[in-house]
Amino acid sequence: MTKRDLLITSPMMRMIEEQLEQHFTVERLYKAANQEKLLAEFGPRVQAIGATPGLKIDAALMQKLPALKIIASFGVGYDAVDAKWAGEHGIVVTNTPDVLNEEVADTTLGLLLATIRQLPQADRYLRAGKWLEKPFPFTATLQDRTVGVVGMGRIGKAIARRLEAFNAPIVYHSRNKAEGVSYKHYPDLKTMARDVDVLIVITPGGAATRHMVNKEVLEALGSNGIVINVARGSVIDEQALIEALRNKTILSAGLDVFEDEPRVPQALIDMDHVVLLPHVGSASVHCRNKMGQLVVDNLVTWASGKPPLTPVPETPWPPKK
Questions:
Q1: Catalytic residue among 4, 173, 232, 288
Q2: Residue from 117, 194, 279, 314 carrying the catalytic annotation
Q3: Are 89 and 110 found together in one domain?
Q4: Which domain holds residue 129?
Q5: 116, 167, 220, 297 — which has fewest CB within 10 A?
Q6: For 36-54, what is each residue's pLDDT tens digit?
Q7: Is 279 tagged catalytic?
């Protein structure tokens, strides 16, 4: 059987690329000395893309691939792909939901505790020999804090289940009420921020949620408030957050994502009362292997003539064209 032509747009895990080479004729856009030449020569034959958030896949790129039928994106978030345009032009987009829910939820609780109890700061304090001089200062606590979850999807629900074990009151904000939960729903984010002590952001990225956590929301959260972002850097107005931290409008923040990754504002790096992680929410070997295998399985299943496993809502299967 003739192999279909597949384009890998940005570097992927070795286990993904090795498996794709077994099933497809593969070209790597990220390795091309002249990407426009590659697209001109190989592009008309490309039926599939293997993608990571490393390169934006917009209408301009897709228009250079007239035979394109499927984009398999690594990650639950797929805001780097113009899924709306893809769906309108008969291209299905898949992502990797569910397989990372528990890992991201675990990381979120770790980041929350590290931020509130200042665990990284305490580690640095000991290593610097300061414990020999005096005890580490007392910290804030998770006890008696109400947690507002921004986004109550699969991962939001997994986070909330863990918070229940800490006896933390839980509320949430989303456009619509979530099914299967009894937590109080706030249609308005600013109102919820006023009523909680912690905001955990786990909503999808993209234009619809850009800077939804803004200056007004941070002011409503208040001087005892803590922000945890494990969603996308774009969801928080980063400059407004920096000012809120400088001015003590809020107490602290724990951030796994940033607006211009991997470039993190020096202003945040210089602050000792925040906890910063290099986008490692799902970055365990176990979890990333499962995500990578789902990318492969989506593409191989499609190539065999069967429906892809996890099409995103904007591109239902079969494609509309």
A1: 232
A2: 279
A3: no
A4: 101-276
A5: 167
A6: 999 999 999 999 999 998 7
A7: yes
